[in-house]
Design brief:
Elements lengths: L28 H14 L4 E3 L9 E4 L11 E21 L2 E19 L5 E7 H14 L10 H16 L4
Antiparallel strand pairs: 1-2, 2-3, 3-4, 4-5
Length: 171
């Protein structure tokens, strides 16, 4: 079990370009996936993208069971949203913004294409919370943070909270 430090807002790795995974037989892939899951469960969170542990690869995991049901784990390698419909506004947080949640608008339904850990291409349809989790992790892999989906007023409020916590040494 390897629980890694979660990269927090302000670290350039969160917005850096993430390289697609091209070799599914890469001996480092199983360890990366294990570390993502272990770190996500320990946080606890619903999903985690590789850049959030400092690895700039297009790899993420989603687990709405938060570690209680291993069959719920979804591995996303090189994911792309191919269709989205509807909009829903709901509370959202991010492990790279600890203890901060805000209303964020996301598609209500998405279709995603991604590879699994064996290199098999999958088409995944999701609604509600799973659609939100998929979009959140794909945004991370695209170098986009959830605060970018907030109004400029809300984003400013959140960033002032982050700055205050940074000054207090609590970030």
């Amino acid at each position: 079990m390897a629980i890694r430090d979660i990269v927090k807002y302000g670290d350039p790795r969160l917005v850096a370009r993430n390289e697609p995974l091209v070799a599914f037989d890469d001996p480092e892939l199983p360890g990366l996936l294990r570390d993502l899951l272990d770190t996500c469960r320990a946080a606890p969170g619903l999903g985690l993208a590789a850049p959030q542990i400092g690895v700039n690869k297009r790899v993420a995991v989603v687990d709405l069971s938060v570690g209680t049901d291993p069959s719920q784990v979804i591995v996303l390698i090189n994911p792309v949203v191919v269709d989205a419909a509807g909009l829903i506004r709901d509370e959202e947080g991010c492990l790279s913004f600890p203890d901060i949640t805000e209303l964020v608008e996301r598609p209500e339904r998405v279709t995603l294409e991604a590879f699994d850990e064996k290199g098999l291409r999958r088409t995944l349809d999701a609604t509600d919370l799973l659609a939100r989790a998929f979009c959140h992790e794909v945004d991370h892999l695209d170098g986009r943070l959830f605060i970018e989906r907030m109004s400029s007023l809300k984003r400013g409020f959140v960033l002032r909270r982050v700055l205050k916590r940074q000054r207090q040494g609590a970030w």
